[in-house]
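Lecture 7 notes: from sequence to structure.
We start with the chain below.
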Amino acid sequence: MGEDKTEAFNLCLEVERFGAEQVVSLLKSVNE
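Predicted structure tokens for the same chain:
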């Protein structure tokens, strides 16, 4: 049960990090 929660939490973190990278690259392309 605890492991499932951790897995889901890690997945959320990965999605957030990926989203942040997408935003950063988008801002960079806009600044250029």
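Points to note: The chain has one helix and no strands. The mean pLDDT is 88.
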